Amino acid sequence: MPRISGSPRGSGVQAVVFALEILELLAQRQAAVGVTELAKAFNTTKSRMHRHLQTLLAAGYIIREEDTERYKVSTRLIALGRAVSDNFELTSVARPVMRELREHLGNPVVLSQAEPDGVHILAMLTGKSALEIGVKVGSVIDFHSTAQGKVALAFGEKETHDRVLAGPLEPHTDDTITDPALLAAEIDQIRARGWASAANQTTIGLNALAAPILDGGGRLAGIIAIVDSVQYIPEPPTAEQTAAVTRAGREISRLLGYRPT
Asked: If both were cysteines, with which of 40, 189, 206, 221 could 215 make a disulfide (CB 3.0 to 4.6 Å apart)?
């Protein structure tokens, strides 16, 4: 484990780097580690080490064993690592399929993943048209007014489905569905046919066509979609478009280990 020397560890970027190195060491150890051992590993004082441990403890990334007063990584850090790993695997696996879909249909292709507060955009490939239309990577879009969000409601967690339908459903345009009963009926249709669209429901003139991506356990791992103007993705989308997008979703699912029963 590299040792930090010279610059003060108590502030600025150096403190962040030091905290990350502490987490790395704790993650590599099979058992909890005491303050003295950590201070020795990093060639620093026990008091300085204790301050950094208290910061990580307050943030929830490590826990302290009451009986031994030793430290180890928390389930929060483990969950964060799994989420990063899952996102990386999904994007890596999906990108070749996204390229094939873009080459076949010509529309921008978007990969996203459902989160508690909305659908997180993980990756996007621009379309073949000279006019660039797309969704900003890293942005979070609504459940009720987007094709990706409706797929998440149809194939994702029931808790999210019930919470969103409990409202309120914010109107973005005159075409946004704000009646929970109507949205519930549409979600049932999406679950049955395997795809969703949402023309003019977030922004006038735009549409998206989305399909689910399932993991090896049959859970929703992500959402594949094409996004474009209503001129190029009509409402309803063409049979060729729905076939291509759902096929892409099935192929990525297969690569992630999903096998239909």
From this structure: 221
